[in-house]
Design a protein that fits this description.
- Helix 2 (about 40-55) links the parallel strand 1 (about 25-30) and strand 2.
- Helix 2 crosses helix 9 (about 250-265).
- This protein has 3 domains: about 1-120 and about 255-280, 3-Layer(aba) Sandwich (Rossmann fold); about 120-250 and about 285-290, Response regulator (Rossmann fold, 3-Layer(aba) Sandwich), CATH 3.40.50; about 300-400, Homeodomain-like (Arc Repressor Mutant, subunit A, Orthogonal Bundle).
- The protein is globular and about 75 Å long.
- The two termini are about 40 Å apart.
- The strands form 3 sheets. Strands 7-6-8-9-10-12 form a 6-stranded mixed sheet, sandwiched between helices. The chain has a 4-stranded parallel sheet with strand order 2-1-3-4, with helices on one face.
- The protein has helices at about 1-15, 40-55, 90-100, 120-135, 150-165, 180-195, 205-215, 235-240, 250-265, 300-310, 315-325, 330-340, 345-360, 365-375, 380-390, 395-400; strands at about 25-30, 55-60, 80-85, 100-105, 115-120, 140-145, 170-175, 200, 225-230, 245-250, 275-280, 285.
- By secondary structure, the chain is α/β, with parallel strands linked by helices.
Length: about 400
């Protein structure tokens, strides 16, 4: 009894060391999030960032892949809350059995009574369609993985966006047979039957990798015949494929951070609505797999090539007029017919995308970037960039830098 009283007295002494501060109860949290892919690991980085300012959490994490359903590691666990990427019914049932405050990280919504934080699929679809359209592509397709509800929904949004532009959308659903060679031949046959050139959105980077391998089997040129865009920007996968895979980078850090914040509120007794909270992706990272100019108008094609060749410092519209031998009015008309926007808007788009890439890949100051990009002042560059992206150059750099150290 004396020993227990001594411990209690010591705890009270520590609590009284800082006026107004009490010792927070440790909250035991289980993370049912796979560790086998870059997207999920990015979610874990976001959760880790939340814990920097909320160190009273004790994490319980079992290593597993997105396909695993063995959650027996939770049998003896007793805790306060759960963050889970609920990709299958077995995981959904287990989360329900635990009966604890929980936040879902999958747009499959297999447990609709839970709040869910996930990448904005509608914005992913919009960016993908625009990515292909500005390159002159008019044929579109989606390659999804039928095992995951979020993949089906991502495909639905992409198809809807394509239809809004007045085009048809083809679809292939990956359904593993257990023999990879047969699966790739099936995909290759589908690719051969598609109209060309075509832009294909892969539901995630692994599917994009499979598409590129199937293109080799079908002897289809990438990106001239088939342009491929993945999702998640798994740097290792994207740069190991041949050719390197373009991809949409999700904001996994913000997604994981917000999920942790919501769970903390729920464990404190606050009511959190059971709604899907979409998180805007960060950017489209263009690599060789989709770096194509497929434009039927030869003068527009010449203009686009000049704009891209001078992306580092911009090119005046007057120079383009002289280069292709057209007036500004005629050139704008052709651009509107082919791309849906003017010459000036295309120049701005290319310059801003190039600036965004440099902000992430270099440590150059804003003054150095402005000089390199041909802006008279860094302030003017900053205003133009914020108007285009919604973020200042500094905010954009901080949001997009991959940082797993904190």
């Amino acid at each position: 009894m004396e020993e227990k009283n001594d411990v209690k007295a010591a705890d009270n002494a520590v609590a009284n060391m800082v006026p107004g501060r009490r010792i927070e109860e440790t909250r035991h949290v289980a993370l049912i999030v796979e560790t086998s892919n870059a997207y999920a690991r990015g979610l874990l980085v976001g959760i880790k960032k939340y814990l920097v300012s909320h160190p009273h959490w004790s994490i319980y994490l079992g290593e597993h892949s997105r396909h695993e359903t063995d959650l027996s590691w939770l049998d003896s666990w007793r805790g306060h809350g759960v963050i889970a990427r609920i990709e299958n019914q077995e995981t959904a049932d287990r989360v329900r059995e635990l009966g604890l405050p929980a936040v879902d990280l999958s747009a499959g919504r297999l447990v609709p009574e839970l709040p869910c934080v996930e990448t904005d699929d509608d914005l992913i679809a919009q960016w993908a369609v625009e990515h292909f359209a500005v390159r002159g592509l008019r044929h579109f397709a989606y390659c999804g993985d039928s095992q995951f509800g979020w993949s089906v929904k991502r495909g639905e949004r992409f198809t809807a966006r394509v239809h809004e532009m007045g085009f048809d959308c083809h679809e292939f659903r990956i359904e593993p047979s257990g023999k990879l060679a047969d699966d790739r031949w099936e995909m290759a046959e589908w690719l051969l039957a598609l109209p060309k050139p075509i832009g294909i959105l892969a539901c995630y980077d692994i599917a994009g990798q499979e598409l590129l391998e199937a293109c080799k089997i079908a002897n289809l040129s990438v990106p001239d015949s088939v342009a491929v865009l993945g999702v998640d920007n798994d740097e290792l996968i994207c740069n190991l494929t041949s050719p390197p895979l373009s991809s949409i980078q999700s904001d996994t850090t913000q997604t994981g951070f917000l999920a942790a914040s919501l769970l903390d509120e729920m464990m404190s007794g606050q009511v959190v609505p059971s709604q899907l909270i979409p998180i805007e992706p960060l950017r489209v990272v263009t690599r060789q797999s989709s770096d194509i100019l497929s434009v039927s108008d030869p003068l527009v094609a010449r203009a686009l090539q000049l704009i891209r060749d001078r992306a580092d410092y911009g090119v005046p519209v007057s120079t383009i007029e002289h280069h292709v031998g057209l007036s500004r009015r005629s050139l704008d008309y052709r651009f509107l017919q082919v791309l849906g926007h003017t010459v000036h808007e295309e120049i701005l788009r290319v310059r801003m995308e190039r600036l965004a890439d440099l902000l992430i890949r270099t440590d150059w100051t804003l003054s150095q970037l402005a000089e390199h990009q041909g802006f008279s002042h860094s302030e003017y560059m900053g205003v133009a960039f914020k108007k285009y992206t919604g973020k200042s150059p500094g905010d954009y750099r901080r949001a997009n830098r991959t940082d797993t150290s904190s």
